[in-house]
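Appendix B, example 12.
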Amino acid sequence: MAEKTFKGKVKARVVELRFATSGKLASISKKRGDMVKKGELVASLDKTLFQIELDRQLDDYEKKRSEFEIFNLQKGEPTDDLTKYLKTGKQAELNISVKDVEIAKVKLDQVNLFSPIEGIVIDDSDLVPGIYITPASSPIKILDTSSYSFEIEIEQNDLQMFLNPRPMTIKIPGLEKTYTGNSKPIIPSLNSKLLVEIELQDKTGLILGLEGEAY
């Protein structure tokens, strides 16, 4: 009896990168079709306004710190409740200023968009330097090349075959090599289909969307 075959296709995770803040795009280092490494710069916003804000907060911090030191020199160690409250207020203002500096530094860091994965840029939203973008617009999509798998659709009568991990062989027309892997737990889908993902041992040569058969 011939072994049953299941039709399926190559799947992979696609990660959408978005800036955490709005601003004018200064540069885009990776475009559609480019390979990208984990931690590599993909795009940057103009940092002028963010640097100005950080400088302003640093100046404010220096002002608050000076006021706090002057208060200590003038009042010394508080001996009455009023002076204690005044010193507490000065300390609170200094603490707030420190937090404002930290927030400004985080915002400045967010002008650079780095890739969290290694993969291929499959959509750059046609970004060009000079346009104004927001976190809700213009995502850069990266295909995670380490996440390639082969996904098949099974019938209800085939459930027993996939209750436990099962070794599978995959053949894809157009590719000379044969791929092998093990099935993962059955995935229920919203359209009532029963899907099984096959984790592949070798992922070289694969392209997202290629169709084939598994047995």
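The CA atoms of residues 35 and 120 lie 5 Å apart. The longest strand covers residues 194-200.
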